[in-house]
Design goal:
The protein is an alpha/beta fold. It is built from twelve helices and 18 strands. The protein has three domains: about 1-35 and about 90-160 and about 260-335, FAD/NAD(P)-binding domain (3-Layer(bba) Sandwich), CATH 3.50.50.60; about 40-90 and about 165-255, D-Amino Acid Oxidase, Chain A, domain 2, CATH 3.30.9.10; about 335-395, no CATH class. It has helices at about 10-20, 45-50, 90-105, 155-160, 225-230, 240, 285-305, 310-340, 345-350, 355-365, 375-380, 390-395; strands at about 1-5, 25, 40-45, 60-65, 65-70, 75-80, 85-90, 105-110, 110-120, 125-130, 135-145, 165-175, 185, 200, 210-215, 245-255, 265, 265-270. The radius of gyration is 21 Å and the shape is globular.
Length: about 400
Amino acid sequence: MYDVVIVGGGAAGNAAAINIEGEVVLIERKKSIGEPVECAGLVSKRTLETLEISLEESVQNEIYGAYIHSPKGKTVEIGGDKLHAYAIDRTKFDRILSDKAAEKGVRYILNTEVTDIKRTPEGVTVIAKDRETSNKIEVEANLLIGSDGAKSKVREIFFECKPSELLIGAGAEIEDVSIDPKFVHVFFGKSIAPGFFAWIIPTNRKGTKARIGLCTIAPPSRPVKSLFQSLYTYPTTRPYIEDSAIIKTIGGIIPLGYMEETVKNNIMLLGDAASQVKPLSGGGIYMSLLSSKFCSQVANSAIENNRFDEGILKGYHDLWSKEFKKEIMFGMWLRRKFVGMNDNDIEEGFKHLENEEILDVINRYGDIDYPSRLIVPLIKKFPYMLSSLPRLLSLFL
């Protein structure tokens, strides 16, 4: 009998495990923590500051700005004057967290898939099987934390709500490129990334290695593999990657939308399972890590008081919602505007960035973790932009 069982050994699950004071077991379906990778691996500066442990070892490169490319080849430079983000080795990142949790006594059960979960008078029983031997495993706990991704088994069994939308991503680690290591590239175009965008992230300080990819709406208008291959022939992306060699491929599913319910008696949802993701970028590491601190804080209170009912666990939902609900709702509003745009609309949006004063405000106040913070400075400086603001912000936040 454990105090807490965590399903899912990604960044969120591992981070929660680090801070929970009690007997904790974590079940992960992968053979190894962090592999295969399902993430573009670009995080803000504050992401590495969220947890009270050093994650510097996972940093591959420092990012100072971005080149934004329109469907017809117009390019706008944003940032460049200061450090904004890091390209990280996501496998190493997750393993630093899991090693820290293991040092604190968390038990890890890897290569094991949850098949069912039952309620008991004391809490929950998680029923799983070893993916190699098919041996059955049962774990009992007072509290269950579902941190098992976009298609969460925990959410499927106990919650009626689900993400508003799913994105499908495909990408690769590549080498033999020659790009400015301080800048990411973001590409818009309905032909290469319908409903989202494509990217190139330099992953070493020489600009010779990169992580490329794209996301698109689900179900996709054409096979995701075909969309990925088109990156090598599309006019705006081809010059940067046409001579590159693929080291390994990456893929995953990204949930979007605010979830009204993330706790029930004895159960909490965390990370992608709770759709804790920025709708405009698809990034979820910062939101998940900060939410994991709220999650462990409330879990510790539940353990201390020997109370695991929804009344006490709701404190977690309230904490993370207070921090991020506005950002998710704002992002989804802008996203709906963006999905309705065609390539000509996107080109029109780029025209605003020919105004250096607008760019200056974006560079000064833009925040990749809290994009809504840019609205007031933009409207205050350019009140005439109020009607066209959704078009601009949906492209460049």
